[in-house]
Design goal:
The chain has 722 residues and is α/β, with parallel strands linked by helices. It is built from 23 helices and twelve strands. The longest helix has 53 residues.
């Protein structure tokens, strides 16, 4: 299932000269771990599309239609409070100008930790709500299934030992985080020793001393541990009166702290999910008497035999019953949707009848949703909000269009009068009319698509695999419990910020942590912006031309960094660019945008090796490389005025291959392959055959030869290693 789905997105902006049609009927999807590059000239609608995903459109923006579906929600229709929980937490963005994205009077460290602390607060709240809500649904389904005995007692027992586990894990994490803070201070002190900065050494000792107070836990260091007492005493002495003559003693202490803390941090962690069950039944493990692996094995055996194996079977029953009930409800929902279609497809819609059918069909669809499915069925979840928005748009047209026509007629008459008097009046603002037929067609399509979707699921029957799904459900509940157990401290946020700075390639992170944005180069500032975006471990990262303001060498470094982070973190990335060469080695799919529309869409290989739209040819022709001998071709003319979009293909006026039909009618989408399509009349069966420019075909030939050469080298290397 796609991570993000954008469907028929249409956005315009109010201006004094009329509505600017910035995005026109844009659709695409983004899979997990995939990079989608959106390429095109400035003003093609790339940034507006992604800003709509982030919910940060300008105040004069008008969303005229479409859906942006993420995690079962239409992002265009959720309130700002709900969007606030997603923005920065699940969806992150790297902006084009890093200097304008950073606060010039706030230290870099604070800007990094501020985002982490705010997102941690939201994550804890969301984790608690998700855990309680899912557990309540599970209890209701177990009860409804009928064959599970003692449901309330089992759910209560599960909830009780998870809460014990959460409390114990919170205390343990607080201790281990404090240990990490101490080691972070060790790194800082070592760096200060190298620089022979006595003041920084004393400050690092103070930070270590404060963190050392919180390292106590049964699974780390027992309260009153003589080793910690010794470290505390020595650090206190060095904090007060360290001098360069004590460098050897200081170095020995730092090494001793590292040798004591490192093994405990690298060792196996206690399995508090299992331990919580033992503690609830009065069996508190003794870490001083047994190793953590032994405690974990015994606690796991205790939990499995006493509760989890039977509980997991009960969860399987609930999942099976819930899915079968969902399928039965889907049959009823299909009937309700089919009953709504004639009303929505009537020649002239009746508002009261449409409202009644929306209420009935939406209620049926919502009853058909399986609440225990961790993967949300986006089509079902957004049905009510989507149809409601389309109906509102349809009926708004009957109020807005006559007013707009009257206004246009009045302005035109005034324009003609002033012109007849020899004046130079301002141009008449074009009419901003709602296409009633298009709104009704979108309404019918949404209902029909959901009917087909449900009929396919009904024909397939229950999906099965309930044992794996039960395991996933319990893991999900554990993960949500861990979310609300984890409270990020200021010290740990500082450590994570420094680690993020290391991850994105910032040298001397301890020193840089305290600097201001103006003390960084352009490339370093962009790395900081990327670190801030990654601080909450988002699902989707949007990069809005992050390399435009950088020189070529730094561009390559930033692109390599984004590619590496995507692979390591399984990020889904949307990369906006006007230079196709930038994304040649990092994009999985490419969407070419022009005048607010996607004119070509395909995999990277499709677009680079088999481009079909003249605009894609123009972009490739203007892309410099070391091998091209021909003069690069500039794209003639300028993009059209989107207050009055062209009647036909928007690129026709700049396209030397344009035919008469290009000026008269917008081209439909023509499929080149299952993964590749383009909107150009040149792909029509009756169109004349046109070859791409020589500069493009030569480049494709060179790329194919280089690809074959790389494959041969890899094959030879693989054979040699074998």
């Amino acid at each position: 299932m796609a991570k993000l789905e954008v469907k028929n997105l249409t956005i315009s902006f109010r201006t004094t000269n009329g509505a600017v049609r910035a995005v026109r009927d844009v659709s695409f999807d983004l899979q997990e771990g995939e990079t989608l590059a959106i390429a095109g000239e400035s003003g093609s609608g790339k940034s507006v599309t992604t800003r709509a995903v982030m919910g940060i459109l300008a105040g004069n923006a008008m969303v005229d239609g479409g859906e942006i579906i993420y995690d079962g929600k239409d992002l265009l229709k959720i309130p700002e409070e709900e969007f606030h929980n997603l923005r920065g937490h699940r969806l992150a963005m790297v902006f084009q100008d890093p200097l304008s994205a950073l606060n010039p009077v706030m230290r870099i460290g604070r800007q990094l930790t501020e985002a982490m602390l705010l997102n941690n607060k939201e994550r804890r709240r969301d984790g608690r709500e998700s855990f309680n809500r899912t557990l309540k649904i599970l209890q209701d389904k177990m009860t409804a299934e009928g064959s599970v005995s003692g449901v309330q007692d089992k759910i209560k027992e599960f909830d009780s030992f998870v809460k014990i586990a959460v409390r114990q894990e919170f205390a343990y994490k607080e201790a281990t985080e404090s240990m990490v803070e101490v080691l972070d201070g060790v790194d800082e002190a070592n760096d200060a020793l190298i620089r022979r900065n006595d003041r920084d050494v004393r400050e690092a000792c103070g930070r270590m001393l404060r963190a050392m107070k919180h390292v106590y836990n049964p699974y780390t260091f027992a309260p009153g541990d003589p080793l910690i007492a010794s470290f505390t005493e020595k650090l206190g002495s060095f904090q007060r009166k360290y001098t360069g003559r004590q460098q050897g003693e200081m170095g020995s202490l730092l090494q001793e702290i590292t040798d004591s803390f490192d093994p405990k941090l690298k060792a196996e962690s206690p399995n508090f999910f299992c331990i919580g069950y033992s503690v609830m039944h009065g069996r508190q493990p003794d870490p001083a008497a047994r190793s953590i692996p032994e405690i974990n094995r015994e606690a796991r055996r205790d939990l499995d035999e006493g509760f989890m194996l039977s509980f997991r079977k009960d969860v399987e029953k609930a999942l099976e019953w819930s899915e079968k009930q969902s399928l039965e409800e889907k049959k009823k929902a299909v009937e309700a949707l089919k009953a709504a279609l004639p009303v929505f497809g009537a020649g002239s819609l009746a508002q009261d009848k449409c409202a009644e059918k929306l209420k009935e069909s939406a209620a049926a669809v919502e009853r058909s949703i399986d609440p225990l499915r961790l993967e949300k069925d986006n089509q079902a979840y957004v049905y009510r909000s989507g149809v409601k928005a389309l109906l509102e748009r349809y009926f708004r047209a009957f109020r807005q269009n006559p007013r707009e026509e009257a206004r246009y007629k009045k302005d035109t008459e005034r324009f003609e009068r002033d012109k007849a008097r020899g004046k130079t009046p301002p141009s008449v603002i074009p009419m901003n009319l709602i296409d009633i037929d298009a709104a009704q067609k979108s309404l019918i399509d949404q209902v029909s698509d959901l009917i087909k979707h449900y009929e396919s699921q009904i024909a397939s029957g229950p999906a099965g695999g309930y044992d794996k799904r039960a395991e996933d459900m319990i893991d999900y509940l554990k993960a949500r419990a861990e979310d609300y157990a984890f409270k990020l401290s200021q010290g740990m946020a500082r450590h994570r910020a420094i680690e993020l700075m290391k991850e994105v390639g910032i040298p001397e992170p301890h020193k840089r942590y305290r600097q201001y944005p103006f003390e960084f180069s352009g490339g370093m500032r962009q790395r900081i912006v990327i670190a801030i975006a990654l601080s909450a471990n988002p699902d989707i990262l949007i990069c809005d031309e992050p390399t435009t303001a950088l020189d070529v060498t730094i561009q390559a470094q930033i692109l390599e960094l984004i590619n590496r982070l995507k692979k390591e973190r399984r990020l889904s990335v949307i990369f906006i660019t006007h230079d196709l060469g930038v994304v040649a080695n990092m994009a999985d799919k490419i969407a070419i945008m022009y005048a607010g529309k996607i004119v070509e869409y395909g995999t990277a290989d499709d677009v680079f090796y088999d481009p079909r739209h003249p605009y894609t040819w123009a972009l490739l022709s203007s892309m410099p490389d070391l091998e091209t001998k021909e003069k690069l071709e500039a794209i003639p003319g300028t993009p059209p005025d989107m207050i009055l979009p062209p009647q036909g293909d928007a690129f026709a006026a700049r396209n030397k291959y344009a035919m008469q039909i290009d000026f008269e009618e917008q081209p439909p989408v023509f499929r080149v392959s299952p993964t590749h399509w383009a909107a150009t009349w040149l792909l029509h069966p009756d169109a004349p055959h046109v070859e791409p420019p020589v500069i493009v075909t030569d480049r494709i030939r060179r790329m194919q030869e280089a690809q074959k050469e790389r494959e041969m080298k890899e094959a030879v290397k693989g054979g040699t290693e074998a």
